[in-house]
Structure formats: structure tokens, C-alpha cells
Amino acid sequence: MFYTDNKLQYPVRVETPNPLFARALQQAIGGIEGEVRVAMQYFFQACGARGNNKFRDLLMNTAAEELGHIEMLATAVALNLEGAPLSMQEEAAGDPINGAVLGGMNLKNLLSAGLSAMPVDSDGVPFDMSHIYASGNIAADMTANVTAESTGRTLAVRLYNMTNDPGMKDMLAYLIARDTMHQNQFMAALEELGGAEGNFPIPNSFPQDMETQEFSYAYLGFQADGSEPAQGRWSKGTSMDGKGEFTTRVFKPLGDEPNLGKAKPKSGAQSQQI
Amino acid sequence: MFYTDNKLQYPVRVETPNPLFARALQQAIGGIEGEVRVAMQYFFQACGARGNNKFRDLLMNTAAEELGHIEMLATAVALNLEGAPLSMQEEAAGDPINGAVLGGMNLKNLLSAGLSAMPVDSDGVPFDMSHIYASGNIAADMTANVTAESTGRTLAVRLYNMTNDPGMKDMLAYLIARDTMHQNQFMAALEELGGAEGNFPIPNSFPQDMETQEFSYAYLGFQADGSEPAQGRWSKGTSMDGKGEFTTRVFKPLGDEPNLGKAKPKSGAQSQQI
Amino acid sequence: MFYTDNKLQYPVRVETPNPLFARALQQAIGGIEGEVRVAMQYFFQACGARGNNKFRDLLMNTAAEELGHIEMLATAVALNLEGAPLSMQEEAAGDPINGAVLGGMNLKNLLSAGLSAMPVDSDGVPFDMSHIYASGNIAADMTANVTAESTGRTLAVRLYNMTNDPGMKDMLAYLIARDTMHQNQFMAALEELGGAEGNFPIPNSFPQDMETQEFSYAYLGFQADGSEPAQGRWSKGTSMDGKGEFTTRVFKPLGDEPNLGKAKPKSGAQSQQI
Amino acid sequence: MFYTDNKLQYPVRVETPNPLFARALQQAIGGIEGEVRVAMQYFFQACGARGNNKFRDLLMNTAAEELGHIEMLATAVALNLEGAPLSMQEEAAGDPINGAVLGGMNLKNLLSAGLSAMPVDSDGVPFDMSHIYASGNIAADMTANVTAESTGRTLAVRLYNMTNDPGMKDMLAYLIARDTMHQNQFMAALEELGGAEGNFPIPNSFPQDMETQEFSYAYLGFQADGSEPAQGRWSKGTSMDGKGEFTTRVFKPLGDEPNLGKAKPKSGAQSQQI
Amino acid sequence: MFYTDNKLQYPVRVETPNPLFARALQQAIGGIEGEVRVAMQYFFQACGARGNNKFRDLLMNTAAEELGHIEMLATAVALNLEGAPLSMQEEAAGDPINGAVLGGMNLKNLLSAGLSAMPVDSDGVPFDMSHIYASGNIAADMTANVTAESTGRTLAVRLYNMTNDPGMKDMLAYLIARDTMHQNQFMAALEELGGAEGNFPIPNSFPQDMETQEFSYAYLGFQADGSEPAQGRWSKGTSMDGKGEFTTRVFKPLGDEPNLGKAKPKSGAQSQQI
Amino acid sequence: MFYTDNKLQYPVRVETPNPLFARALQQAIGGIEGEVRVAMQYFFQACGARGNNKFRDLLMNTAAEELGHIEMLATAVALNLEGAPLSMQEEAAGDPINGAVLGGMNLKNLLSAGLSAMPVDSDGVPFDMSHIYASGNIAADMTANVTAESTGRTLAVRLYNMTNDPGMKDMLAYLIARDTMHQNQFMAALEELGGAEGNFPIPNSFPQDMETQEFSYAYLGFQADGSEPAQGRWSKGTSMDGKGEFTTRVFKPLGDEPNLGKAKPKSGAQSQQI
After folding, report:
1. E3·D8 Cβ contact <8 A
2. What is the pLDDT of residues F183-215, one digit of tens each?
3. Cβ F64–B9 below 8 Å, yes or no?
4. Residue C6 and residue B254: Cα distance in Å, rounded?
5. DSSP assignment of F225-252, as one string?
6. pTM above the 0.90 mark?
7. CB-based contact (8 Å) between D20 and chain A?
8. In this predicted complex, what is the ipTM?
9. Among 3.40.190.10, 3.40.710.10, 3.30.70.3400, 1.20.1260.10, what is the CATH number of F19-197?
10. pLDDT digits over A251-269, tens only?
């Protein structure tokens, strides 16, 4: 169950409203790297967590934090939209180039939301909840969370570099710090679950002698000229899960040309196929 | 540039066609954990790779492999759909319960594709390319790939457990082995890039003294009763990136209630808001 | 800012797990009438609320409640999925009709989520955040909320009628009661804002003498035979906003056939169009 | 069945073509508040209407009107796109700032549609038919229609305020008037069905003594500090449906921490969860 | 402008309601081969038609017809849903296998639409208006329409083969006949525009001497072993547009390995890439 | 199975990077007329091809070619993004108008992809795999491919006309030539399958005496005033499939007003409908 106190987790202030930066910030709300995504991802992972409850608690606690981040960013978007022109005339008065501000905004922030934030990305594409990764496998979930926080921090850094508004830089410096922690905390959860050797290959509950082990640690080459693919840590030495030895192998097809044969009559095919 | 030889990478054989299993296999083609996703993700990551070219080659080489996996699975779907009823009557003849097979299929596999595979998931939802994570940050990309292969192998294991067709089990045992390798190879790429300490927090090009470091390694608590959140490896000790020390802290809001003030006249608000 | 106590708002208990009912319940999570929708809608409306702050507080307070409803329903889905078959064989053992349970489930609940809830509807379609209506106009928002709670309660009633599990009926009776309140509370907010006469037509900030008033209260007929359209409260008498008198009028086109003329050279048209 | 006369319902004229305004107008075609939405919503509601046929007729008649509105707006978009630059050079010749017009347009209007309208919103996002609310409950449908016309008129007002083209203002003044009528006509339909007391809570066919009535008219508080939530018409007095008395109550969880227990073996979980 | 007479274009009758067939029919409403698609596609093509107006009229006239087809199919879906069980108990009473009918239905037809049609496909996926192809090029549009009617008639034939209800077979025989005509009428429009030689390659307004003509009629081979690709009418002889001679050529890359070089500092890349 | 050589099919060079043109090129990658679409469409058609295998080979061979086109265009996007401003300040330094370049870009190309290509269209909308038409009917598929190449070449021509960069014009001239060939090759496949008379109406496996032949070649008029619709090649003369004679007929409804009667109790309708 959730509670609110209507306050912002961290102060949000905008010295010079910038409607284009409002558009950029939308990516941090409704983009695939954004806060709606992480809030809902941790929430759904928590709801489906089986096994030791402390992982459920870690996830739900962090979901609560991320809800507060959405609130901060939505406030930042609204504040940046203050001063956006509402008409071609108003725009022309403030700026010699007709359309440069309106044209650079997400028009839906004005037309659909009346100068407020929306759960859309920086190009106005609504967030799609298929991006909520909650697999029922705790290690896969934690790995997905490290990914989400890595792209999330990368986005926050790009936004930080884009603006020179001191209020926005301050808010983003806080969010970047939190992403640092969240990357670390989900790696720590993986560590607590046994680290690379204890968890990988995910899922670790499948007996590896049932997979086709000849190919389990082979770096296969698909170069047209039959040459070896580019070498690296992945092509020789002990595998990262400690359970195999990397090899390299130029691959040849093991199967034949597939042939589905004739189409069934009455299946809507052409008569030439039947 | 790409080439084909029209052959299957690994043999695909179905002893007892099962239209419901065809539907389940669709998840491995067009699901978010599926092969279209990884093929296109590695492809786009390769196309945008900057820096040492061997990572580009690793990605493009693996993309070529994954294209072949789609081909295998699409063949498996078509073979499992052989024998699907084309009509209510045909179904009733083979099975006393009208609708049990047709009702359990993805009807689009019949109605739209004429008993062939489609780039949709097991509930008939088309794959959406927003799931292609290609961030321009090589470590974030590799982390995303470990995630993709972890959920991918989890899915393949669930499919393996669901069927008892020897041909399908053989094919899935091969795909599970390849996912084992791919989890390992992308972890190896991260290792080659410097491992956790060399890469995290991602992006490592942002000077950490510009983030609000007071919060960089603090596990913050958002429990309604003000208690500490559940403890674990993430709440004390050295951080996973080796750059900080985990602490725990019950959080209180640092900001005030946000107040956006009045709406602008002519912004389409109610007069009560202006 | 948000807080959690990890507890369920209301008890969730399932006496006889039913994977098909789990699928039906998904509509109440990720359907357009579902709880993710209302939680996020009230949240975004609150974040963009301008004018008297008590509406912001009403919205954010109710958003907190709805987050707890998602949690309840996600738990109910997971509990109903206990006992779902993991394989064709397991299914065949418990039930003479191969595929009747697996075929009736959302397969993604098993394949993607490992027997847990997802933010998708009862056909496995992910929730799309374009359904978050937050218009920046407080009366339009409140009207949208009455709509959301009306379709929400209709859905909850259909689910209540579908099941005979006492635990599920108890949980749904609670949710139905809350939808009763929420319909009423958002109508009350409209009342406090001035009711039909004070708010409509929305937005009330546009001077009505600037609209083409000849058509503002006319029920126009588009019947092919030129007859009057079906009469009702909408075709005569005082309008609901108290600002006009309903009339009925058979409509004839006031414009001509549109003619866009020739296509521009170099616009990619056929030469026959240029 | 439908008929056409190829004429515009109301004259559409553009004095000064403005490609950015074409983009804004797209919201009124393919946005969630747009005309495709209302045309298709009333159409599908009509097709599913059960009970007194006059509501079906009202809906289908209005659907016919709305189809004509799409036609008007599509013509307006095409006329505003006349004069859009087809190349960087053409643009540079007319305007000192390279890219300001092309950059502000929906490029798909040029690249995909050859300077014509598309069923997309002002950011180029295609309309998604999940926004067609047709619930099978006539009162819920009418409420949804009041909502659609409220956000529709809000959008039309914003567009009116954005342009100073006399032709466009004239067209929009007509559309705003029609939205005034449509808000009123659907409220009138609700009135004819019995008004707030006759219809609410929706659906009114569910016996209220089967809901958990203790919570049916209680305004529940979810404030972190346990204080009462903000008061208003919704917190005391007779409820809007006339069937209860509003109360206020600070809420405490009635359920416990959910515990899903162990994961099933073979469900693809980690062995630590099993 | 559009008019309605509320009548069905062709009689719709269902002798034995079948909820699973209702689900199948949904594909013909909201599938990519369905009637919403063609109605809206011809409508938008008409709205954007430049050049000879008779093509606009052909398109708008056919759009009106297709709207009537949606109406027929929506009625057919609702009639097939009569008799669907509303509860697990009701189902169990009529059918020994719990869940076989409910599990085979689109649950949204019941839960969201109250036993009515929706603009979704046979798996419950909503129609997405990006499928409206209206290119601004009249020949491309007509070709797209032949395609739409080809997949549309294929779908209608599959539905005809699936059912043995005489009323449904009669309705589908009518729709199949109309698709026959529509395939022919759009081919006739292409013929009137000059046929293959007059129209192809589309767009015919681009001077072919500006394309890289060495490759304009060459069938290029991408076989891994460097062999020629499979021969056919496409590999030698005069081209179908009459403007070239087909040749076959094994292809070798003309470009080098792409190299994007280093990432820009401050672009959010890893320091290893900069 | 697929192979790569990491080389570009054709040289890609950009003399003057232009971030707005990068955005336009995105349409050729992730737009519905783009290369992801054709690559995946031919790939899935090949995987489901039944009947003569040479069509499968034609399709898979061309899929391999199109994968190389994505690679070229993704490289072109990245090269055009070189020099995009990373901040408001950087932009302001190079250009007097703040926001004109950043505002005209797809911001996701910067924020999500770090100056690289994405599988999205020119407005940042991700490609949706429902656009992969693979019908199981070989003639319908080939017709769909002619359509795809027609809109594809139209798009390439528009892009060619938009830029004056010699490198980009050279690349596009190559792609336009390939689209010329692909239009021709798929028409040739139709010819080899028997041409219009041998294939149409599609599917040709349905006995035409089972369709309602009275309407199979009639151009039906839906003009409101009962006049004949606009005449053309489609209204008289032999039909294009050679199997009928075109006629024209003003249409009157053959069905009655539909009446679904009362709603079922417990179906969630209002009591007024029951």
C-alpha cells in the first residue's frame, strides 16, 4: 500500500523556462529509459517476487522512490513550459523566427496537456508497458534493473550536458547520483544471490547437461569468407560463469533447406501452391 | 552486408504437430525476449558502435547468428501448425470438444498467415521495435545484451519444459546452449572493457564529483512508518563499482509541495484555474 | 513523494486457483479500464494541476489508493496462477482435454512472467500510456475520471459475476465499493467547481460569442432520406448547460467539393497528377 | 449503411498556408481528442447498442457528422501544407534559418503522405483504436462521450488561439460550436436515462448491497503523516448519486504483507527461489 | 460529407451463435486485412488526392461502402456473442469442460464491450492507424489497395471455410464478391492511369537517368557460396515496366567497413570510446 | 542461415552532416515504407512459403539484400548526426537561433542512441512489426511486395529531392535503382505465377460460384443523391481478371435496421437496457 505527503523528494527549480528542454525532459519521464519505466518495473517485479522476501522489499521500496522522481520531472516539465508561446503571433513577438520554439516543442504538451507533462517520450510517443520486464526469475530481474539504471543514468547525463540552467543541473545531479546507487544496489543483489558463478547461466535451475553442451561456450563465426570472427575475452579462456572454456569455431549449417511442402486446400493459398 | 545459404543453422523437426505449442513458440520469435529482438538489437548496436571496432564485429557476427535462429523458430511454428483444424467441423471431428484447439491457437497464425509464423508474441501482439536498446554507450549495450540473453534463456527453458516432442526438445536444447554462450560472451565483453570497476557507474565518462555525492551510495528508505528498509549486500560495505561505501538512510522530503500557480489565459484551462 | 508499508490495502485470498480467471483479472490491471490507468491518470493530472491546490491533493491522494489496488490485483493474479500446468503432460494428467487450460491462459503470464501478473490486458496487450488523460483543464479531467471509474466499476462487476470463488468475490466487492465512491467524488469535484452550468461547455474560458452560435445547440440530422433524426431530450428544451435552447435541423452541406488541384513537381506524385 | 456527396460540411479555407499549423491540426484528426476517435467511438457504440433504439440512432447520426469533420480537417491540413519546402535549398531560399520550417513540420506529412493529412497526432504518432470506448453500458458510453467532447473542444480552442488565419478561425469556430452541442446532447441523453440518481453508480444493475458498503461513500486518506486528506464537496454531505452520505476516514491497511512463497520447480525461476 | 440510413447493406443472420467465431470475425473488423483499414485507407487517400478528381470520387465512394461492411461485421460479432457464458458456472452448466468457451473467446469482447464488437483483431490487438497507406502518389495508392483487397479476400475465404453457419456463409459470400470487385476496380484504375508501362517504376515522375541505372534491372545474388540465385521471370527478359532488360549478377560489396570513429566527449559514451 | 562480411553494400558518404536530414533518413529505416519493413517482410514470407521453392529463394535472397540497405542507412544517419549540438550553448554558438537544430532533430537520436540510428521513423515512432505482411498466399505476398517497393521508391525520391549533399544523392540514386528492380521483380513473379488472369481474384483457390456473383463485378454507387458514381475503366468493359464484365449500379440497402434487443442481465449493462 502507498502513501503520499505531496512534497517533492528534492527541490525542482527552473531559472529560465525552456520549452525545448521540457521536450527533452519528457524522455526521462516516458522514454524507455525513463522513470515511469523503472517505477512500474520494480513495482511489478515486487508483486511477482517468490523466494526470500527481502528482494521484494528492496524492489517495492525503490519503486516508491522512483514514483517521487516522476513527480519531480513532471514538475520540471511544467515549469519549463511556462512562457511557451500559445500562438504564432505571441511567438513572433518574442522571437524573430516564426515557429522556431513552437516547432521545436512537443506540440502535445500544449495541445493535449495544457503546458503540463505527459507520459510520453521526447518525440511525443506514449510509454508502452511492454517495457516492464518482470520475468519471475530474480536474477534476470536484477540484471534487467542494472540495465535500466545504466541507460537511465546515460540519459540523465545527456540531459545534464544539454542544459545550463542551474536549477535543472542541480536536480539532474541528484538523479544521476541516485542512478549510481541503483546500478550498485542491483549489482549488490546479484552478488548476494551468488554473483556470476552462482547465478549464470540464468536460469540456474536448468540442468546444464540437458543443453547441447558442444555449443555452450563456443564463439561461433558467421563471416561470409569463412574467416574467424574478431577475437576478445569472449573467444578463449574460462567463461565468465566459471563453468566452461571459451572456444572459437567457424560455423557451417547443420540443417538442410527447410521445405514446408504444399499448402493445405482451403487454407486460403493460391491454387499454384496446393 | 549479409548473405544467405537458405539452410537451417540446426535441424528442426516436429514429431507431433501441436498448434498450441506453435503459439507458445511465437513468444520466442516476436516476444520481447525473442529472436527478432536480439537480432535487431545487436544489428543496430553494431551500426552505431564507436570506438574499438572489435565490438562492432562481435555484435554484427552475433546478429547474423540470431537471424538464423528466427528462421529455425519460424520453421518450427509452421511445422507445428500442420494439422491445425481449418474449420469448426474439422475440429469437431478430431476432438470431442468444439473449439478447444482453435480456441487455444493464435487465430492470426491461421487467419492472417495461412498456418505460418508471424513476428508476434504468444498472445498475437506484434513486436515493437522500441525494444531495440542501442544506447551509443558500449557498456550499457553489453549490459542490455546480458539481460536480453537472460530473459531469452529463461523463455527457452520454459518452452523446453512445456513440450515433450523430441524434435522440439532437441532444437530448444541447442538454443539454450547458445544463450548460455551469449550471456557469457557479453559479460566477457564487459570484462574486456574493464569489468565492474572500469565501467560502473555507466556512463563512466561523467565526472562523479559533479553528481550529488551525498546520495551516490546511500540506500534510501521510503517505509511509511519511518523504519529502515530491508538490509542486504546493498545497505553496507563497499559498493560494487569500488568507488563508494554503502550506507542506509531513512529519507525525508527535501523539497516542498510543488505549486504551479494559475493557468495562463488562453491555454484552454477552466476560468476557475486562471 | 511516496511511501510504502508493503501491506495489502485489503485482504486477497483465492480458494480455488483458476488460471483463466487470472487472465480475466489482467483486464483490471492493464486494460484501459484498469488500475494502472487510473493510478497514472490521477498522478499526472495532479502533477499538472494549476489553480486551487485542493484538487491536486484530491488527485494525488487517490493515486496513492489506486497504486494499492494494482498491488492487490497483481497478488490475485499470481495466486490464481498457482496450479497452472507448466507442460502439456502436466495438463493432460489433470484434465482430459489437452490444451484447454493452457490454451485459455495468457501464455505470457507463464512464458514471460513465470506465473506472475503483467501490465497487460486480458488478451495480453500491454497498457499504453496514451490512455492517461491529463488535459490541463480541471473540469475535463474530472469528467474523464468519472468516465474512468464508470468503465472501471462495470469491469469489476463483470469480473464479480464471472467468478464464484469467495475470496475473489470479497476482494471485488471492496473494489466495486471504491469505484462507487470514486464516481461520486469526481462528480462532487465538478459540483464544487460549479456544476453543469458553471463548467460547461468545457473549456468555459472561451467566450461563446466567438463560436458559430447558430450551431451551438442544434441537433443536426444526417439521415440519407432527409428525415429528422431520432428525437429525445437532446432535440428540444433548454440545453444542459443552461445557456441555449435545443433545436433540430436537417443538415445540408455548406461547403463545396474540395479540390486540392495539381501535385507539386518533385513531391513524389505520379506525373499524371502534376 | 453510409452515403457520401463528396462535399464539405462547412467551408474550409486557408489564407496563409502554414506547415506548422498543419502539424497542430493533425492533433484534431489523429490525436486522442480528435475526430477519428469520436467518429469511430460513436460508430462502435451504435453497433453494440442494446435497449431502446433511439440511442443507437443518436450515436450513428453523430458518427456520420464526425466523419465529415475528419474530411474538413484533412482538407485543412493539405491546404496548410501547400508551400511547404520540399528541400533544404527551397527552404533556405524562403527563410534565413535553415531547417526552421522543415524541422517544425511532421516530416511524415511530406515523406509518407506527399503533403497530405494522415491519421496521426501532432507528433506523428498514429491513432490507436484502443481509444474507442464502447462498453456495452449505455450510461458509461454517454459519460465517455461527454469526456471526449470536453477534451475535443479544449483542443479546438487551443488551435483557435494558436492561429490568426481568418479561414482557419472560421472553421474552428464552427467545430467549437458543434462540440458545445455534442457535450450537451450526451449530457441530455444521460438526463433522459434518469440523470445522476437514475444512473449512478454505473452500472446501476448491480445490487449495491453486494458491494462492501462500508467503503462506498468514504473519502479515504493516504497521507503519510496520517492526517486527513484535503476536504471538499467529496468529503461530507449527501453523495452525488443520492444514495449515501460522504464521510472521511484515514486509512490503515486491512491486509497483510503478501507472500507468494516458493517458485515452482521447472517454472524458470532461479534455484534460490525454489 | 456522410449520411446514414441505419440499415444494413446486406442481411446479417446467425443461426447458431458461436463466441469463438465472433473472435475470428474480429480479424475482419480490426485486423490489418480488415474493414476499418480499407474504409479509413480509401477515405484518407481521397482526402489527399491531387490531380483528376474522378479518382477522389472512386475512393470516397468505396470508403462509404466499406463503412457499411464494418457495420455488418460488428452486428455479426454481437449476434455470435449472444449465448456466451458470463460466468464459470454458466459455462460449466452448458459444457462439461470448464473454460473451453470462455478460454477461446476474446475476453475483452465480454469484459470491455459487454458482448459487442471492438476495433481489435482476432487476438484482441487494437487496430493501429499506421496501416492507413495514403502516399500522395495515386499509383502507389491504387497498388496498395489491390494488396489490401487481396489479403482482405483471403481472410474472408478463410472465415468462410471456418464456419458452417448458413447465415454467416451467406454474409461472407457477399463480402468475398465485393472483394473480387474491389481488386478489379483498383487494377482498372491503374490501367486507366496507363498500366504497368505508364506507371512503373513508381513514382514515374523521377527521371530514370538520375538513378544508378547499372542496378535498375539487375537481379542481384546474395548467396553465401557465390552461386547464382534461383532463376525465374525476374532474372532475364524484358522488365515488366518495359523499360529495361533483366540481368542476373552475383553481388560483391562496393563499400568498405564503416567506421564511425570515436564518440564525442559529453555524448554519454563510455570513456573507452572517446 | 545468414553470414556477414561487415562491409557496406554501396559506399556511404556525407559531405555536410545535417541532423535534420538524419531525421528524414530515419523514415527510410523505421518508417512503414522503410528497409526494416521490407527486410523482415521478405524474410517472414520466405519462412512461410509453401509450394515451388524458387519463390522462397527469391524472397530470402532479397531479404539479405535489404539487411544491407538498413546497414547503409544507419551509417548515413550516424554520419549526418556528427556535428549535432549536444547542448543549448553549443547550438547557440553555431547558430543565432536557439533551438533551431536541436528542435528539428529527433531528440531520441541524441538522448536514447547517442547520435546513432534507431529503428524509428522520421517522427521518432518505433517500427511496429504488424506491418510485416506475410499472408501464406504467394500472390497476395507478391502484390504486397510491389506495394512496399512502390511506397519505398516514392520515399527515396522524396529524400533525394530534399538533400543536396552529393554523397547522399549518390547513395539514394543506388537505392532508387534497386527499388526499380524490386518493383519489377515482384511483378515478374506474379507474371510467372500466371499474371492477372491466372492469379486474380486472390485467392484463386476459392470457387467463384460460391461467392454472390451478382456483386462480383458491379461498381456500386453510394452517392447520397442517388446519382451514379464517377465512371472510369472500372465501371464498364471486361474486368481486369478476365472473368467478368464491369457494370455500374446505384445501391440500396438489402438489410434492415439491426436490432440487438435487450442486454443480458449480469452483463454489466444499465438496468434501462435489460
Report:
1. no
2. 999 999 999 999 999 999 999 999 999 999 999
3. no
4. 23
5. TSPPPPPSTTTSEE-TTSS-EEEEEE--
6. yes
7. yes
8. 0.96
9. 1.20.1260.10
10. 999 999 999 999 999 999 9
